[in-house]
């Protein structure tokens, strides 16, 4: 399974692994407060992730064009994948029923996966709270 990035280039997740692996974070929507904070935190720590041999990749159901705008607006330099059909979200189990203000709908539950260089999931962070999440993931890579 592959997905297009912000430029429309198709990627298999295994092609995005760094020397030691990757951090794949699934987030609900570009340019929303929580998603912006989470993305900016990963961007700020990107050199540290890369120094440890890990790439960082964001995945949402937004379009490639939306991802391009988000990257430019926020100065993001890592890859954002567009899972418009939610196939990858469903495969990872993050496309779930959500409730907000009494309404029930399907959406992405904010979740982060650390994948090792062999492509195996090494750690899962379910139902992520944005505050200091990127720092916690980085600290766990050092543990």
Automatic annotation (TrEMBL):
Catalytic activity: a hydroperoxide + [thioredoxin]-dithiol = an alcohol + [thioredoxin]-disulfide + H2O
Enzyme class, first EC level, given as a word: oxidoreductase
Highest taxon above the source species: Bacteria
Pfam families: AhpC-TSA (PF00578)
InterPro entries referenced in this protein's UniProt entry, alphabetically: AhpC/TSA (IPR000866), Peroxiredoxin_BCP/PrxQ (IPR050924), Thioredoxin-like_sf (IPR036249), Thioredoxin_domain (IPR013766)
Statement: the UniProt record of this protein carries the keyword Transmembrane helix: no
GO molecular function, one term: thioredoxin peroxidase activity
UniProtKB keywords: Antioxidant, Disulfide bond, Oxidoreductase, Peroxidase, Redox-active center
PANTHER family per the UniProt record, alphabetical: AHPC_TSA FAMILY PROTEIN, THIOREDOXIN-DEPENDENT PEROXIDE REDUCTASE
Family, similarity comment: Belongs to the peroxiredoxin family. BCP/PrxQ subfamily.
Biological role: Thiol-specific peroxidase that catalyzes the reduction of hydrogen peroxide and organic hydroperoxides to water and alcohols, respectively. Plays a role in cell protection against oxidative stress by detoxifying peroxides and as sensor of hydrogen peroxide-mediated signaling events.
Protein name: thioredoxin-dependent peroxiredoxin
Organism name: Magnetofaba australis IT-1
């Amino acid at each position: 399974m592959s997905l297009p990035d912000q430029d429309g280039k198709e990627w298999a997740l295994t092609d995005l692994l760094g020397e030691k692996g990757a951090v794949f974070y699934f987030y609900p929507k570009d340019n929303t407060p929580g998603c912006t904070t989470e993305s900016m935190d990963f961007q700020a720590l990107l050199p540290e992730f890369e120094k440890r041999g890990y790439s960082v990749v964001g995945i949402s159901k937004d379009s490639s064009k939306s991802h391009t705008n988000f990257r430019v607006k926020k100065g993001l330099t890592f890859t954002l994948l567009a899972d418009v059909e939610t196939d990858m979200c469903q495969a990872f189990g993050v496309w779930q029923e959500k409730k907000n203000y009494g309404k029930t709908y399907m959406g992405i539950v904010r979740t982060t996966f650390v994948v090792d260089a062999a492509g195996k999931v090494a750690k899962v962070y379910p139902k992520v709270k944005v505050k200091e999440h990127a720092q916690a993931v980085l600290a766990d890579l050092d543990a």
